[in-house]
C-alpha cells in the first residue's frame, strides 16, 4: 500500500512538472508589488491561476523559492496583460485543463481500481487454499483410518 502511495505521489508530481520545486502562494497584491518592482521574470496563466518565476527567492508556506502561485479573480485581464508587457515579462497562456481529464482520472481512480481488483482476487486465492487444505486433510484421514475410507 505504501508503495502505491509513493508511486502515485511521484507520478503526479512528475506529470505536473513540480517535482523538487517549491512553489510559494502569494496574494494578488504581493504579486502586483513584485511585478511593479520588476522582479517577475515569467508567468503562466491558466484560467484564473497565475504561476511564475521571480528573479529572487521569497518566503511563504514554510518554504523559500523563486516559484510563485497566485489567483487572479477578475475576468477582464487586459490591465494585467498591459502590466506584464510593460515589465518585459515572458507570458505563457495555457488552455483549461480539459485535455488533462484522462491523466486526472488515471491518477485519481487508478489506485481505487487497483485496490478493488486486489480485494476481488483475494477470496479466490482463499478458496483454492482451503480446498487444497481439505484434500490434504482427507489424505491424512485415509492414512490414519484405512478401513473407514474403503468400504
For the termini, the CA-CA separation is 52 Å
Number of helices: 5
Q: Rg, please?
A: 30 Å
Strand order of the largest sheet: 1-4-3-2-5
Largest sheet: 5 strands, mixed
User: Any idea what the shape is?
Assistant: elongated
Q: Could you say how many structural domains there are in total?
A: 2
Q: What is the N-to-C order of secondary-structure elements (H for helix, E for strand)?
A: HEHEEEHEHH
In the CATH hierarchy, what is the class of the largest domain? Answer: Alpha Beta
Q: What is CATH's topology name of the largest domain?
A: Signal recognition particle alu RNA binding heterodimer, srp9/1
Could you estimate the helical fraction of the residues in percent? 40-55%
Strand content: 15-25%
Strands, total number: 5
Q: What value does the average pLDDT take?
A: 77
Uncertain regions spanning at least 5 consecutive residues: none
**Which structural class fits the helix and strand makeup?**
alpha/beta
CATH architecture group name of the largest domain: 2-Layer Sandwich
Describe the structure.
The mean pLDDT is 77. The protein has a five-stranded mixed sheet with strand order 1-4-3-2-5, covered by helices on one side. Helices cover 54% and strands 24% of the residues. It has two domains: 21-94, Signal recognition particle alu RNA binding heterodimer, srp9/1, CATH 3.30.720.210; 104-149. The protein is built from five helices and five strands. The chain has helices spanning 2-16, 28-36, 78-86, 101-144, 146-149, and strands at 23-25, 40-46, 49-60, 63-71, 90-94. It is an alpha/beta fold and 151 residues long. Strand 2 and strand 3 form a beta hairpin.
Amino acid at each position: 500500500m505504501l508503495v502505491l502511495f509513493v508511486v502515485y505521489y511521484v507520478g503526479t508530481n512528475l506529470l505536473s512538472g513540480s517535482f523538487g520545486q517549491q512553489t510559494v502562494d502569494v496574494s494578488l497584491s504581493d504579486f502586483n508589488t513584485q511585478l511593479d518592482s520588476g522582479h517577475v521574470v515569467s508567468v503562466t496563466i491558466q484560467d484564473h491561476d497565475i504561476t511564475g518565476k521571480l528573479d529572487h527567492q521569497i518566503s511563504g508556506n514554510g518554504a523559500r523559492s523563486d516559484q510563485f502561485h497566485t489567483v487572479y479573480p477578475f475576468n477582464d485581464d487586459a490591465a494585467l496583460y498591459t502590466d506584464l508587457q510593460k515589465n518585459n515579462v515572458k507570458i505563457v497562456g495555457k488552455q483549461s485543463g480539459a485535455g488533462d481529464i484522462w491523466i486526472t482520472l488515471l491518477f485519481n481512480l487508478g489506485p481505487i481500481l487497483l485496490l478493488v481488483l486486489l480485494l476481488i482476487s483475494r477470496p479466490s486465492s482463499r478458496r483454492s487454499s482451503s480446498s487444497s487444505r481439505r484434500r490434504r486433510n482427507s489424505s491424512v484421514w485415509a492414512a490414519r483410518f484405512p478401513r473407514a475410507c474403503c468400504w
